[in-house]
TrEMBL record:
Signal peptide: none annotated. Residues 29-113 form the KH-like RNA-binding domain. It is found in: Cytoplasm; Nucleus. This is KH domain containing 3 like, subcortical maternal complex member. PANTHER family: KH DOMAIN-CONTAINING PROTEIN 3, OOCYTE-EXPRESSED PROTEIN HOMOLOG-RELATED. The gene is KHDC3L. SUPFAM superfamilies: Eukaryotic type KH-domain (KH-domain type I). Pfam families: MOEP19.
């Protein structure tokens, strides 16, 4: 059997033969609420050794504070970190009962935390593995599902050929509008460049006043 590990406490106790405990050091420094007769009937709580530090902090650093609040002394016997630990509670019987219940409740809480942590790790590993092992079909589908932003960007970046083709395929309404909105220079140029047929037709359709004028002057 390994030597029990020592944890901090308000009063260091030493176990003699059997279940007899004695106080180490100066008896005058013990708390006012602690009496020697409490050493005769400790209440034992057994739990996994790792729970001692889970409940009372690293190295049991919170044990003295718990002793002050609960007005009990806690003596921890721990033989193997991977084995079982025994916590002995010294004090008034009803205080012993309350502290023992508190320790067992905290032990259950930390067991549940450890169980949840052990379950979450395999689940995270499985999720990462599933994400890296997607089928080729799923990969192609993901590639074809571009975001709306990517689609708009692609639409605004048309090739020069597509831009020229779009420019030559104007709607009939746009073509008529463009034809009626010619510049004054273009209109005058078109008026002076009439075809011969249009010129002859214009000459034969002169007004009667213009055709009679040469006769009256002869």
């Amino acid at each position: 059997m390994a030597t029990p590990r020592r944890f901090p406490t308000l009063v260091q106790l030493e176990q003699r033969e059997g279940t007899l405990f004695t106080v180490l050091g100066n008896l005058s420094k013990r708390p006012y609420w602690f009496h020697s007769e409490y050493l005769k009937s400790p209440k034992a709580v057994h739990l996994e050794a790792w729970l001692v530090e889970a409940i009372f902090g690293q190295g049991g650093e919170h044990i003295p504070h718990v002793e002050c609040v609960s007005q009990t002394l806690l003596h921890v016997n721990q033989w193997d970190p991977e084995g079982e630990a025994e916590i002995l509670i010294f004090g008034r019987p009803y205080y012993q009962k309350d502290v023992a219940k508190m320790i067992m409740n905290l032990a259950d809480y930390h067991r549940q935390l450890r169980a949840q942590s052990s379950e979450e790790v395999p689940a995270q590993d499985a999720a990462r593995e599933a994400a890296t092992q997607r089928s080729p079909e799923a990969a192609r589908e993901a590639a074809t599902q571009r975001s709306p932003e990517a689609a708009r960007e692609a639409a605004t970046q048309r090739s020069p050929e597509a831009a020229r083709e779009a420019a030559t395929q104007r709607s009939p309404e746009a073509a008529r509008e463009a034809a009626t909105q010619r510049s004054p220079e273009a209109a005058r140029e078109a008026a002076t460049q009439r075809s011969p047929e249009a010129a002859r037709e214009a000459a034969t359709q002169r007004s009667p006043d213009v055709t009679q004028d040469p006769v009256t002057r002869s």
